[in-house]
Amino acid sequence: MKYLGSDKVCPPDWLCSAGTALMIVVLSTFVCAFTIFQLCGKIGGAILAVFYIINTLNLLRVHHLCRNTEPGIVPNIRSKRIDYNKQYYITYREINDVIREFT
After folding, report:
1. pLDDT tens over the chain, length 103 residues
2. Which DSSP state fits 26?
3. Model's pTM, two decimal places?
């Protein structure tokens, strides 16, 4: 992984990601050109094609953001069952006890 600054990265599998984006574009073009217009006619197909193209562009945007952005640390989700003002003590079981429990 190559860091480009801030939270932007260049993934090591960028060629596969580019291939995925290309497949999305090619297949979406075929669906938009043939299926939508045959199902809805010219006027309805044109209206539906506009929405379809907008959604496809949004998909490509999200795909780009997912592959080129470092997520960092996943934020903590607070639980309603845990009292965060209380100290908890944890004891770990021996590995043999865990193995015995599952066999």
Report:
1. 777 777 788 888 888 989 999 999 999 999 988 888 888 888 998 999 999 999 999 999 999 888 888 766 666 677 788 787 888 788 888 889 888 888 8
2. H
3. 0.61
Distance CA 12, CA 20 (A): 14
> Domain-by-domain residue ranges, the chain?
2-75
Query: How far is Cα 16 from Cα 42, in angstroms, rounded to an integer?
Result: 36
Amino acid at 21: A
CA 71-77-81 angle, to 5 degrees, is 165
- Give the separation between CA 50 and CA 69, rounded to whole angstroms: 28
Bridge partners for 8 per DSSP: 5, 69
